[in-house]
Amino acid sequence: MIRTDTDQVRDFGRNQEAIFDFYTCPGPLTSTGRYTPYMDALPRDVPGLVRVVQGLAIHEYMASAYGITVPEERKPESHIRSVEEMLGRILAIDNRPLTIPRQPEKRLVGVCQHFSSLMVAMLQAKGIPARARYGFGSYFNPGYFEEHIVSEYWNAGEGRWVLVDTQFDEIWRSKLRVDHDVLDVPRDRFLVAGDAWSQYRAGARNPARFGIFVGEQRGAWFIAGELVRDIAGLNKMEMLPWDQWGAIPRPGEQVGNDPLAYYDRLAALSQSPDASFKALRQLYIGDQRVQVPPVVFNAVLNREEPVAVAA
């Protein structure tokens, strides 16, 4: 049987519809759970949702720029994984509607994952396909690509996926002198992990420039770990940036030849997640090296933790 161009277009349309359905439906960690009714009052436009998230969360490493010091008893908030638990904590601190910006000292203490996950959850609540992307931003520390997590949503009007950095409000943009549109981050300013890995493997990037400024942890092992987290994120398991499991190398670990080929495959799949959607799903379901287990290792707290979802 000869397949025509029309057949191919029809297949692509069905595949794209399945992709949109998948990324519009919340995952275990982006489900708003008991707080779903709170989503009704939120704006539908992306800039409006960004402003809402910025009024609910504060990055623990940037708190001083807002004139506050994070109390010790509030620091565990940055280890919350599920959006339902994040919303519960936000409302426990200040039970006013989510559309009302909190004072900095009354915002959820988090990191990039919290901004990204909240944004993904709110976009999905408005029927907009969205997913978390793990990678590296060039706009934190000149000359380096720092580990970072952003949101990616489907812009139906333009027919493309757009990266949005919800974390970057006016204070962040001023402090870091960001000169690009944080609502449409250029893909050479934020490299998804697969792009970072492929550029390193092609000799175009020095892996020592990729990592995180905390402890100066950098290298190919760090890119490989971020690649596994991006695969998990593309399968709707949005983990903390310091969560470790399966194929994520230990700090400073040398990546040998066999693992190199394995990470090459992960990078190829994650660089074009729509075209590779079926393969990405099959990989995640069938490969325990990338599949998030019930218990992961929290490298910051140096302990194993269940990937708990609020009941």
Q: Would you mind describing this structure in some detail?
A:
The chain is an alpha+beta fold. The chain is built from 9 helices and 11 strands. The strands form 3 sheets. Strands 3, 4, 5, 6, 7 and 8 form a 6-stranded mixed sheet that branches. A hairpin with a 4-residue loop joins β7 and β8. It starts with a helix and ends in a 5-residue tail after the last strand. The N terminus is likely disordered.
Mean pLDDT: 93
- Helical fraction equals 25-40%
Fraction of residues in β-strands? 15-25%
User: What count of helical segments does DSSP give?
Assistant: 9
Q: Helices and strands, in N-to-C order?
A: HHEHEHEEEHEHEEHEHHEE
Number of strands: 11
Mind describing the biggest β-sheet? 6 strands, mixed
Overall spatial form: globular
**What is the terminal-to-terminal distance?**
51 Å
Specify Rg, calculated over alpha carbons: 19 Å
Question: Structural class, from helix and strand content?
Answer: alpha+beta
Poorly predicted tracts of residues: 1-12
Short précis:
This protein has nine helices and eleven strands.
Give the topology:
Layout lengths: L4 H20 L21 H9 L2 E3 L23 H11 L14 E3 L1 H14 L4 E8 L7 E11 L4 E5 L5 H7 L13 E3 H9 L8 E3 L4 E2 L1 H15 L8 E2 L12 H15 L5 H10 L8 E4 L4 E4 L5
Parallel strand pairs: 1-2, 4-7
Antiparallel strand pairs: 3-4, 3-6, 4-5, 7-8, 9-10, 10-11
